[in-house]
Amino acid sequence: MPLPLLxxxxxxxxxxxxxxxxxxxxxxxxxxxxxxxxxxxLQAQPLPFSVIVLDIGLPGxxxxxxxxxxxxxxxxxxxxxxxxxxxxxxRVRGLEAGADDYLVKPFASAELVARIRxxxxxxxxxxxxxxxxxxxxxxxxRRARVGERVLDLSAREWGVLEYLLQHxxxxxxxxxxxxxxxxxxxxxxxxxxxxxxxxxRLKLDGARVAIRTIRGFGYLLEAAA
Length: 225
Description:
Blueprint: E1 3-8, H1 12-24, E2 27-32, H2 35-41, E3 51-55, H3 63-72, E4 79-83, H4 88-96, E5 101-104, H5 109-123, E6 129-132, E7 135-138, E8 143-146, E9 149-150, H6 155-166, E10 171-172, H7 174-181, H8 190-203, E11 209-214, E12 218-223
Helix pairs in contact: 2-3, 6-8
């Protein structure tokens, strides 16, 4: 299911590019272009969004006021502020008003995606028990098993396998895997993902699952025939 996201951005060119980027990352994006409309939309109970991406410089009322009103209503939905203001006091003001994170324009779209996913994970942890075929994962204990056999996995291998299992039956790209398991600033390359997948294939012998390479797209974890 796509991650439900509210994007509040009045720059038409930037907003169009962000909508396309986020939708390509399996996010359901609703776009609002001014502060008053955003405030009205955010009065819904319960909020239908997992994350709010909120520009500060908006017509009507600015992003600070939208955020202040949201928190005054007791809403705890994660908010990521977008700002062209690089002054420390503006960033501090946003965080003190209740923002969970911020990005200063211009920013890389991959970093925006990674930060959104990180915020979503804080409030929507994955199911503790995941399974397919003879493979089972317990996220609480970070144990993976093939039948009764416990798998010896590195932290990165665990992250890749958990993400693939969470998205079993769907094609995921290498970049999606990186964005999901490596916080910004961590060094994880596309080639490294290939290495981890290769190792996992060997370790999943007997699991009755297969990690298929979909050329030009990424990987697909599915039950073996």
